[in-house]
């Protein structure tokens, strides 16, 4: 048994092992020798490597299934209701994306001098008669800066709940081949 928190990096580790075994198999697929010389074959055969590769792929698929199942079945409380971990993960991503965009909008000034030429409504406009052009925000940048901070705090809170759940959920997977001494 391992926790969901352990399963996620373990899956990445198994994926790296699969990549390594695929490369090793290709490397050991042939040996180069001088004509007339007897080839020296590696100790590990293609069949041995392929068997390890098949086991690692099967473990990866099983672990991926168990992670997905846990993420669908387990829930956390959010906004007064229980939502699945998969929904919580997606909501946290969306909150972070929205927080980031709100913070960018919050960095703008309410009124700025526009560049000498700019594009608006599909056509180029140029400064005429020496008058300065200004760009006026159609929203309150301070309000968006504050909203960005609030959304980021909410994303952090939800991420904390997800992380706590990940540490409390047990998954029935024998990780001895990949973890330990």
Automatic annotation (TrEMBL):
It comes from the Bacteria. This is Uncharacterized protein.
């Amino acid at each position: 048994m391992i926790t969901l928190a352990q399963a996620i990096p373990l899956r990445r580790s198994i994926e790296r092992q699969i990549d390594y075994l695929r490369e090793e198999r290709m490397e050991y697929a042939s040996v180069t020798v001088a004509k007339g010389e007897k080839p020296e074959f590696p100790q590990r055969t293609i069949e041995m490597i392929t068997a390890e590769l098949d086991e690692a792929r099967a473990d990866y698929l099983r672990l991926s299934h168990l992670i997905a199942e846990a993420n669908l079945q387990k829930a956390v409380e959010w906004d007064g209701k229980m939502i699945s971990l998969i929904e919580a993960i997606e909501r946290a991503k969306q909150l972070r994306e929205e927080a980031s965009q709100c913070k960018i909008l919050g960095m703008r000034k309410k009124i700025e001098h526009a560049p000498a030429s700019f594009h608006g409504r599909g056509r180029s406009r140029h400064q005429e008669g020496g008058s300065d052009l200004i760009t006026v925000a159609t929203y309150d940048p301070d309000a968006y800066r504050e909203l960005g901070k609030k959304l980021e705090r909410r994303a952090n809170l939800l991420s904390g709940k997800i992380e706590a759940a990940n540490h409390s959920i047990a998954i029935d997977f024998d990780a001895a081949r990949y973890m330990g001494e």
